[in-house]
Amino acid sequence: MTAIPTISVDAMGGDLGPEAVVEGIGHALKRWPDRKANYLLHGDEAQLAPLLAKHPKVAAVCELRHTDTLVQMTDKPSEAVRRARGSSMWNAIQSVKAGEAGAIVSSGNTGALMAIGKVILRMKKGVHRPAISANWPTPKGHTVVLDVGANVQCGATQLVEFAIMGEAYHSAVFGGDSPSVGLLNVGQEELKGNDTVREADQLIRKSGLDIAYKGFIEGNDISAGGIDVVVTDGFTGNIALKTAEGTARLVAGWVREALTSSLLAKLAAGLLSLGALERLRQRMDPRYINGGVLLGLKGIVVKSHGGADGEGFASALGLAYVMAQSDFMAQIRANLDKFASFEEEQEVAAAS
C-alpha cells in the first residue's frame, strides 16, 4: 500500500488519558519521520483541543471527533457493550468499520475493547475467539506470543487458530517467509502437557496447514529467539508477559544502579558510548514494544497497555501503522479455510 493511512484513536482510554495520546502522536512523528499518517481522535474536545494547541505538529495530522462519553476501565464487557454506543472507544472502532481508518488504537478497557470490536467488526470466518498478540524481543529480533490475555481458557481448536493468525501476523509485521511456530508446554516430549495442548499439537500435524510447525517449546525458549511464534492460552501468556516485563525493569534497575553506585562507576559509564547505552535502554524498556493486536476480527484493533505514557503509546501507533500497511487479512485466509475443511472432514468421518 502507498496511500497515507489513517489511524483511528480512542483518545480517552487508559490511565493517563488524552495527554498520553497527544504526546504519543508527537513521539511517533519524531521516531518515524518517514511514516506519514493521519489520525482521527475520538474524545472530549474540551480536553483535547488545548493539548493539540500546545502541539501544532500533532494538530496538523489530526482530526478531532468530539464525544463526551467514554468506557470506564472498571466497566464489565457486557455492560460496556450496552452503554458504549457513541463513546470514544465505540466511535473509534466504528471508523474502521466505515472504512475511514485502517486501524484503531486504544489504551482502554481490554475486555470492553474486545467485546465492542466483536460487535462492530465481527469475527473473521473460521475464527471462534480473538487473541491478543505480544511482540517479545529476542537476540534475533522478535518472537510473537499469543494469546496474552484475551482468553483465559482455550480449546485445542482455538490454539490452532491462534497458530494460523500468529504466523501471518509475524510475516506482516516483521517480514520473512514461513516463520516457525511452536506450542508452549511444560516440556518438549509429546507426552508432556495437558489434554488441550496435546490435542492442538495433533490437529496442527494432521491438518496439512502451510506453516513451519516445530512442536512443543518451553518458557525459556521464548526469549532465546529460536522460534518466531509461540502459541498458548491467555492465562499462561499473560502471566509470562507480565513476568518478563517485571524482569526487564528489575535488570534495568540493576544496570542503572551499577552505573551510578560510585564516582568511579559514573566515570566508567561516561566513557561508554552514549548511543550504545541508549540502544540498551530501549531494548530493555517495555514501552518500546507496547501494543498488541486483537487478531481474528474483521479489522485491525491495537490494544495499548492501560498505563502507557506517550513513549509507550507511540509504539502502539507504530504497530497500527505497520498493520494498516500490510496484507495480514489476506494472508490468514488460506490456512483458515484449509483448517475449516479439515474439521468438516473430521466431523463427517466421525458421523459415518
Question: What are its keywords?
Answer:
352 residues, alpha/beta
Task: Give a summary of the structure in a few sentences.
This protein has 352 residues and is α/β, with parallel strands linked by helices. The chain contains 14 helices and eleven strands.
Task: Give the oligomer, counting copies of the same chain as homo and different chains as hetero.
Answer: single chain
Instruction: Give the helix level as a range of percent.
Output: 40-55%
Low-confidence runs (pLDDT<50, min 5 residues)? none
**Secondary structure: number of strands:** 11
Q: What string, H for helix and E for strand, traces the elements in order? A: EHEHHEHHEHEEHEHEEHHHEEHHH
Report the end-to-end length measured between terminal Cα atoms.
48 Å
Percentage of β-strand residues: 15-25%
Strand order of the main beta sheet, please?
3-2-1-4-11-10-5-6-9-7-8
**How large, in whole angstroms, is the Cα Rg?**
21 Å
Mean pLDDT: 89
Largest sheet: 11 strands, mixed
Number of helices: 14
Report on this structure.
It is a single chain. Helices cover 49% and strands 16% of the residues. By secondary structure, the chain is an alpha/beta fold. β10 (292-295) and β11 (301-303) form a beta hairpin. α7 packs across α8 (195-206). It is globular. The termini are far apart.
Question: Which helices and strands, and how do they pair?
Answer:
Layout: E1 6-10, H1 17-31, E2 38-43, H2 45-54, H3 56-59, E3 62-66, H4 77-83, H5 88-97, E4 103-106, H6 110-121, E5 131-138, E6 141-146, H7 156-174, E7 180-184, H8 195-206, E8 212-217, E9 229-231, H9 234-260, H10 263-271, H11 274-284, E10 292-295, E11 301-303, H12 310-324, H13 328-331, H14 333-351
Parallel strand pairs: 1-2, 1-4, 2-3, 4-11, 6-9, 7-8, 7-9
Antiparallel strand pairs: 5-6, 5-10, 10-11
